Amino acid sequence: MKKYFGGCDVGSTYTKCVILDEDGNMAAHTTMKSKMNSEKSARAAMEETLAQVPGLDSPEDLAYLIGTGYGRNKVPFAQENISEISCHAMGVHMTDPKVRAIIDIGGQDIKGIAIDTDGTVKNFAMNDKCAAGTGRFYETMANAFEMSLPEFSKLSLTAKNVIPITAQCTVFAESEVITLVGEGKPMNEIAAGIQRSVAKRCFIMAKKAGATDSVTLTGGCAKNDGLKKAIEQVLKLKVVDLKTDPQLMGALGAAEYARQKGLAKGKGR
Amino acid sequence: MKDLKHLYDLEQLLQECNNDLVKEACEKGQIAVGDVCSMIPEVLLNLPGCFSVRLRAPRTGSIEIGTYYMTSLLCEYCRALVERAVEGGYNFLDCIIAPDACAAMNRCVENMELLKTCEKEKFFVTYSDVPMKSDETALKHYVRQMRLRVLEPLHDVYGIDVSDAALLEAVEQHNKVCRLIRELGEFRKEEYPRITGYEFYIFCLATYCCPKDMLLPILEETLEEVREREPDQEKTYRIRVLLAGSEIDDLDFIKLIEDNGALIVADRHCFGSFPGRDEIKICEGEDLLTQICRHYMVTGQCPRFMNTEKVEERKDYADRLAKEYHADGIIYEQMKFCDYWGYERMAASHIMHEEYGYPVLSIDRPYVVGSSGQLRTRVQAFVESVEIKKIQGGR
């Protein structure tokens, strides 16, 4: 029987699963909202992913499985866990081996990652406890605009001018935005200002990690075109688009590590 | 590995600054001296009749009160100490001997004094000037300050014997503690160490926070126990690291690092065994206090020392420790807003990587780490990258 390998990325906002076959082809994937309990998130996402591959009924049917993400040590069926920093690097390397730098914007943190030629991490930088510029930040901002995130992103792209947002803190930025809206400033320009402020946050991480010529975005926020545009303007670097869903990079990297380790062990489970 | 007999008790003991051993010593009439910096020679605070307690604020939650008095731009260690002092956590102290080492600590102790957080009748605070350069001129001033700000007040207020005989007794006790701690630490050089960094840290930290005479039998017994201890047959760590940086008294921080696969084989920080547990070598023919002060000035590795020789020495010191204890990498940590380490950490993490070739993880952290997911991820990613480079044959 064909062997399959799994990666389960339990993030603070979304849980992602990827299943690879022996040749590294993606056989299935899932992205779903995380629950309060990381273990339940992992189980639900994995169940949905397994259902996409005929012959796979439970996580035990996978030859090797690795957990990653914020809840990586709460994935009950994983043989081991690997940090999301290593997994994002590997996921991107599999998707586009030419990419040397990543900005990963997840639900609660921003990371700058430099990748070596073999997909391993060369250097990384990460924000601390503050949620400024993360997915949570965007959720709060979109709520203030009474919009969905895609609508917010689209709105920011229509701006001709940018109204700078001075506060980095999520709470203060929200009140600043509410004040600006109250003053009757154009909504699209405020939205562009928010994108610019996050891009500046990314600038720090990308520079700390050592990004030089181009960069790619991963994590849920990578789907935000307004942010991508702002990053290109602020970093003055080309943002490389990935062929595979950038939100899946952590799970894909975990699955690839599982594939390499599973095959190296020969037998799997 | 089999659990160490005294480990759990000491772990519990370290949850309080005014712990059971401290209480017992106070009940016996010993004078409790609050210590806040390595620049005050610890032996001078451990003369017969008194004992030092390096101030900590374990189990700190919010530090709002400390922040009110100190502002949010000063180091969290100092803010946490003020918070704990206001909560009444240092009421057991008979005095605090502080150096003019950094502005933040100075303000911290001043606040404790002004807010009258210690209620004992004869309680006093002194501030002394300590060297920023390591040379003979600085030494002369250092010695004068220690006599004036430490020995004389202890003698005048509490009748502590500050004679040479008493100093010598304190040095001998200090050296005994150092020998035991260093010997325990030596086991971390082994490929399959019979003591973990976390276990070692508990014993080492206790030597800063508990009366030494009460701790000595515990250390002696533990050393025997570790000598006989069977190490795990399988490696329980993924990489070996030197932990260098500012003040660390948070057990959870050490645990977090080791839980993520990095065994701390050498510790070079304010509460660590390097250089804090260096023995003091005494020779005849020179004033004893001068010799003690010289020891602290010469062996001190605080970034507060700003002469070029000391700045260079600090990198070589880290390099020597990393080699001696077979470290695969270095973790440089710094308390947020620590003026001295803010610069030192940035420069050292760059130089140790670029010029000495070590993988380096650079962290600025709050006083209490708790269960920081971000920090856990950073350490684990560092471990993974060092491990992969090791497999690939590089450092």
TrEMBL record, chain A:
GO terms for molecular function: iron-sulfur cluster binding; metal ion binding. Keywords: Iron, Iron-sulfur, Metal-binding. Its cofactor is [4Fe-4S] cluster. Pfam families: BcrAD_BadFG (PF01869). InterPro entries: ATPase_BadF, ATPase_NBD, CoA_E_activase_dom, Dehydratase_Activator_Redct. Residues 7-258 form the ATPase BadF/BadG/BcrA/BcrD type domain. This is Bcr-type benzoyl-CoA reductase subunit A. It comes from Faecalicatena orotica. The lineage of its organism: Bacteria, Bacillati, Bacillota, Clostridia, Lachnospirales.
TrEMBL record, chain B:
Keywords: Iron, Iron-sulfur, Metal-binding. Pfam families: HGD-D. One of its GO terms (molecular function) is hydro-lyase activity. It comes from the Bacteria. InterPro entries: FldB/FldC_alpha/beta. Coiled coil: none annotated. Its cofactor is [4Fe-4S] cluster. Belongs to the FldB/FldC dehydratase alpha/beta subunit family. PANTHER family: 2-HYDROXYACYL-COA DEHYDRATASE,D-COMPONENT, 2-HYDROXYGLUTARYL-COA DEHYDRATASE, D-COMPONENT-RELATED. This is Benzoyl-CoA reductase/2-hydroxyglutaryl-CoA dehydratase subunit BcrC/BadD/HgdB. It comes from Faecalicatena orotica.
